[in-house]
Amino acid sequence: MSGRTWVSCFVASALLPMVAAADPSAARQGELIHLLRHDCGSCHGLTLKGGLGPPLLPATLDGLPAEGLVAIILDGVPGKPMPPWRGLLPEGEVAWLVEQLQAGAIDVE
């Protein structure tokens, strides 16, 4: 990501209130992980090690504010291929996905 994108991430995190990552039901968690692997994986790589988009691995997400990552997913990145998911995914589900990604809790191998 460019410096501008990281700045946007941090600015968004300052403006976005802390989002509680409520655990979706087990069935919904499975659907979200499927979406992550297939829809997000089409750009971020099927193993999330990067592709058109950057890697979504715990090491690359370490130190980034969860709120900023949630904002990027919900609102996309203007001028980049990252689309907005707002209106398709609720904020709480996006927060849960970010929490899982940062913790390395999603097995994509």
Write up what this structure looks like.
With 109 residues, the protein is an all-alpha fold. It has one domain: Cytochrome Bc1 Complex, Chain D, domain 2, CATH 1.10.760. Helix content is 54%, strand content 0%. It has helices at 3-15, 26-44, 58-61, 66-75, 91-103. Helix 1 (3-15) packs across helix 4 and helix 4 crosses helix 5 (91-103). The radius of gyration is 13 Å and the shape is globular. The model is unreliable at 4-21 (pLDDT under 50).
Summed up, what is this model?
The protein has 109 residues and is mainly α. The chain contains five helices and no strands.
List the helices and strands and how they pair.
Layout: H1 3-15, H2 26-44, H3 58-61, H4 66-75, H5 91-103
Helix pairs in contact: 1-4, 4-5
Give the key terms:
109 residues, mainly alpha, Cytochrome Bc1 Complex, Chain D, domain 2
